[in-house]
Amino acid sequence: MSWIRERTLNWFQSLILKILRTGHVPRHVAFIMDGNRRYANKKNVAKVEGHARGFDKLSETLNWCMDLGVVEVTVYAFSIENFKRSKEEVDGLMELAKQKFERLLEEKDKLKEKGVCVRVIGNLSLLPKDLRKLMAEAMIVTKNNNKSFLNVAFAYTSRDEITHAIKDITKGVKHADILPEDISENLISDCLYTYNSPNPDLLIRTSGEVRLSDFLMWQISDTCVYFTDVLWPEFSIWHFFSAILYYQKYYPDLQRDVKMRNSKKPTTHNNRVSTYVNKLHREREIMIENMYLPAVQS
Q: Most buried one in 102, 106, 141, 244, CB count within 10 A?
């Protein structure tokens, strides 16, 4: 299944989409794509088939987001906690991810035409080497696309993300790149995996679970959260429309809270911190390049 599908909306769905665009459209939507395993049990198919159906739903949902005007999407594809599942299921998920990123690279011209930049956020060192290379290549070949952004959280948890941010800040203090008094909310935010992205405006979780599962915990303090009972592979455009309407209903209150929070903290770094943050981001870019270069040279 393609990452970028052809538009399939009927006239009535297109009309609803146009109406929704007259209200405030979230710039950044995050998804906890839950329910693939329960869907597999419901349909009496293998778990990996449930996850494959979940990917098909992701590609469809990405199209809805682009049609609506959502600029950025972040999806929770694989938690570090998922490594605790059976070896058969984990191996199946790794193979499925490998196939999907191979397909993404086959479609890189289509992604360029649509302007889609793909980023993978998470602890990539935990993944098989061949999958890391594919993910790195996908990030590099799409990095100059700037119309829309897809962040795939893979081998990710917020605890791991914040732990790595603290380690980077500690290293910066140890090497005298920054001072202890430079540590702030803004600095921590700029050391997270998501430093390139604004915080999500809307978070959607499927399957009826009403928890956040250690996903973007730092980033969603002012995010509108929408829970729905539908299993992810059965998530329809009508469920998507309902989530957008829910967000638009509460948008004025959300904006008030965001303005109050932002008014209480500085918005810029001093030169010392800015230099350190730029250095850290460049080191991360080099790390991705080093994952990819062996694949180019072989």
A: 244
